[in-house]
UniProtKB/TrEMBL annotation:
Origin species: Lactiplantibacillus dongliensis
Leader sequence residues: none
Domain of life: Bacteria
Domain Fido: 158-306
InterPro entries for the chain: Fido (IPR003812), Fido-like_dom_sf (IPR036597), Fido_containing (IPR040198)
Name the record gives this protein: Fic family protein
Length: 404
C-alpha cells in the first residue's frame, strides 16, 4: 500500500490559490481544526509575514496521522537496535563512542549558531572535567550539561525559572555581557532574528509576554495526554518562537530537546540531533518557516513529521557507525588472538584498539587509565607496554616528563 504524503495547510493554500478554489481550502482548514482526533496543545502563536508577527493568533495543533505513527514506530525500533548494539560493546568502547558523538554534537550546536570552536577544543574541555582539572574553561557549561546524559541525569522543567537555570549553566560563560537577560529571568525588550539583512523571526515583545507563553509551554511539556515525541518537537518550536533570551536560544532549545529525547529513547539517539540538523539544515529551517506561515493556521502535523524524519536519519547514522565499529573491533580482536601475545599484552592492545576505532577526537587513554581498567600495577603495565613498543606493535607518540 502506498501512503499518500501528508499535505500541510500552507501547501494546500498555494495549490488552491492556483486553482482559485478557496472555498475548498477553508473547508479543509475547519475540518482539520475541528477533527475529533486533532490534538490541541494550548500553545498560541501569531504567524510571521514580511518581517512582522501578524495580529492574529492560532492555537498549535496536530493530527496523529498514519505517517506520524509509522515514524514513531520506526524511531522506537531504531532506538532499541542502537541500545542492543551498544550492549555488544566493551565498556571502554561504549565510553569512547559516547564521548566521540558528544563532541560532534557540541561542535554542531556551535556551528549552527556561528560560535567558533573545534572538536579538539571541546575534547580538551571534556578531558579536564573528567579528570577534575577544573571546569571554568570555555564551553565547560555546555559540556557538563550534555555529559550528564551518560549518568542518566536530565534537566526537568517544572517552572519557567528552569529555562533560565538551564541558560545559566549551558551558555552564560559564552554570551557577551551586553546580551545577558535584563529582566527578572529573561530579556526585557523585543528581539529580532536576522539572516544577513533579512528579518526571519521576531520573538515575544517583552518579558511579560515571555513569562506568559513559557508558562503555557511548561504546562504543555508536562501534559501526559500528548504523545511524547510530537510534544517534544512542538514544544521545541514554541520555545524558539518565544525566543526568551537575547543570545543562546538555539543552544538551550536543542539541549532541552536532547534532554527530553534521552529520557524517552536511548542517549545516543538524543545526542545526535544537532549533528543531523547540520547535515540537513534546509529541511530543519523549512519546517520552521512553514509552521510560521499565516496559511498554516498553527497546524503542526507537517512540522512533527519533518522533525521525526530528522531524528530517524540521525539514528540511522548512529546505527551505521556502531555496525562499522563492531566489525573493526572484531577484526582487531581476531588479529591480536592470532599473535603470540601474553594475556596482558593482548588486553592492553585491545583497549587501545577500542580507543582508535571509537574515540576519534577523544582525549588520550593514559597509562593511569590503563592500570585502572586492567587492574594491574604501574610496574606491570610499564613492562607490558615496553615489550609491545620493543616488538613494534606500539609507537610512543608523547612522553610526559616528570618534574622535580
Amino acid at each position: 500500500m502506498t501512503i499518500k504524503k501528508y499535505q500541510t495547510l500552507k501547501g494546500l493554500y498555494y495549490q488552491n490559490m492556483q486553482n482559485g478554489d478557496f472555498v475548498h481550502f477553508d473547508t479543509v482548514v475547519k475540518q482539520r481544526q475541528t477533527n475529533e482526533l486533532a490534538i490541541h496543545t494550548g500553545m498560541v502563536m501569531s504567524p510571521f509575514k514580511r518581517d512582522y508577527r501578524l495580529p492574529i493568533e492560532y492555537e498549535i495543533f496536530y493530527l496523529p496521522v498514519l505517517q506520524i505513527s509509522q515514524l514513531e514506530e520506526q524511531i522506537n525500533q531504531l532506538s532499541k537496535e542502537i541500545e542492543q548494539k551498544m550492549a555488544q560493546l566493551p565498556v571502554v568502547s561504549q565510553n569512547q563512542i559516547f564521548i566521540s558523538n558528544l563532541i560532534d554534537e557540541l561542535q554542531s550546536t556551535n556551528d549552527i549558531e556561528g560560535v567558533r570552536s573545534s572538536r579538539e577544543e571541546i575534547s580538551q574541555v571534556i578531558e579536564q572535567i573528567q579528570r577534575r582539572k577544573g571546569d571554568r574553561g570555555r564551553f565547560s557549561g555546555l559540556v557538563k550539561q550534555y555529559a550528564k546524559f551518560e549518568e542518566n541525569q536530565y534537566s526537568q522543567i517544572r517552572e519557567i525559572q528552569d529555562f533560565r537555570n538551564i541558560w545559566n549553566e549551558l551558555v552564560s560563560q559564552e554570551v557577551a555581557e551586553q546580551d545577558f537577560p535584563d529582566g527578572k529571568y529573561f530579556r526585557k525588550n523585543g528581539e529580532v532574528i536576522k539572516d544577513g539583512d533579512r528579518v526571519v523571526h521576531r520573538g515575544d515583545a517583552n518579558e511579560q509576554q515571555i513569562d506568559h507563553d513559557l508558562q503555557v509551554l511548561v504546562q504543555t511539556m508536562n501534559n501526559d495526554d500528548i504523545p511524547s515525541l510530537a510534544k517534544c518537537f512542538l514544544s521545541h518550536y514554541y520555545y524558539e518562537y518565544i525566543h526568551p533570551f537575547y543570545d543562546g536560544n538555539g543552544r538551550t532549545g536543542r539541549f532541552i530537546v536532547c534532554s527530553y529525547l534521552a529520557r524517552k529513547l536511548d542517549r545516543m539517539s538524543a545526542i545526535n540531533f544537532s549533528s543531523t540538523i547540520v547535515a540537513h539544515k534546509s529541511t530543519y529551517y523549512k519546517a520552521f518557516t512553514a509552521m510560521a506561515d499565516e496559511h498554516n493556521y498553527g497546524e503542526g502535523t507537517g512540522f512533527v513529521i519533518s522533525m521525526m524524519r530528522l531524528l530517524m536519519m540521525g539514528q540511522v547514522e548512529v546505527a551505521k557507525k556502531l555496525d562499522h565499529g563492531i566489525q573493526m573491533l572484531d577484526k582487531a580482536d581476531q588479529l591480536t588472538e592470532q599473535q603470540h601475545f601474553s594475556d596482558l599484552e593482548q588486553q592492553a592492545l585491545f583497549i587501545l584498539c577500542q580507543k582508535a576505532i571509537f574515540g576519534r577526537y577523544v582525549g588520550p587513554i593514559t597509562d593511569q587509565d590503563l592500570t585502572d581498567i586492567m587492574h594491574i600495577s604501574r610496574y606491570r603495565l610499564d613492562q607490558t607496554l615496553a615489550k609491545l613498543v620493543n616488538d613494534d606493535y606500539l609507537v610512543v607518540t608523547r612522553v610526559r616528563l616528570k618534574t622535580t
